[in-house]
Design goal:
27% strand; alpha+beta; 9 strands; globular
Length: 222
């Protein structure tokens, strides 16, 4: 029987191996999508993201998305995410689909460096959501094609968003929704033109990082 402490150490090594060594790093050595800060206000900022490619998967609450993993590392990661709360709302299942893609489950069998953030697009009622990984710059022009039909490449258009950055350990959908609701109230007070029908959550850190975490919620401009 493997102890939880041993599992934590093993998962940490697995994630470090997957995340290490991005040449254009901006956050803890991990590549993130480029953006321009357009404006800063008290408690939030306005960013412009250029059109870039992401690898994504979707989930509607009630979908049967059970997967089996015969790889030891994958099973360890799955168990750890469940222990830390990512089984909430199927987020762990979405993450594993994307993680399998970057670790070789693509037509070119190419391993792709992990990037940040793990980005989620969620409806207010949390019934439908999309999870995406940013495609590293080196693969932007020609991303490897996914083998899983539930995984796809999305070329996001140029987008302007309002961003609230905060710390703490946050994993569950309801906690993200609470932060988004508080941010939405602030934006309404400032009379910002915003699309409140969806929000983005952005998690920049591995589950094993406990302090100095970077979390963000975002709303697109209306």
């Amino acid at each position: 029987q493997i102890s939880q402490t041993t599992k934590m150490k093993s998962l940490s090594l697995l994630l470090i191996s997957a995340l290490a060594g991005c040449a254009t790093a901006k956050h803890d050595g991990y590549e993130e999508p480029p953006y321009t800060t357009v404006n800063k206000s008290k408690g939030y900022s306005e960013r412009l993201y250029p059109s870039v490619a992401w690898v994504c998967t979707n989930l509607t609450m009630g979908d049967d998305v059970d997967d089996e993993y015969d790889n030891w590392g994958m099973m360890m990661m799955w168990e750890m995410m469940e222990m830390l709360g990512w089984s909430d709302g199927g987020s762990n299942k979405m993450f594993m689909k994307l993680f399998k893609y970057i670790t070789g489950n693509n037509k070119e069998k190419e391993k792709i460096k992990m990037t940040v953030p793990v980005r989620m697009l969620m409806e207010k009622d949390l019934k439908k959501k999309q999870m995406c990984f940013y495609i590293p710059k080196i693969h932007q022009k020609n991303p490897p094609k996914p083998l899983d039909n539930a995984v796809y490449i999305e070329q996001a258009p140029e987008t302007t968003v309002y961003v609230h950055r905060f710390g703490g350990y946050i994993m569950r959908d309801k906690a993200w929704a609470k932060e988004a609701a508080m941010f939405a109230a602030k934006l309404r007070d400032h009379s910002a033109v915003v699309d409140f029908s969806h929000f983005y959550s952005a998690n920049y850190d591995t589950p094993t990082k406990l302090w100095a975490r970077r979390n963000e919620v975002m709303f697109r401009t209306g």
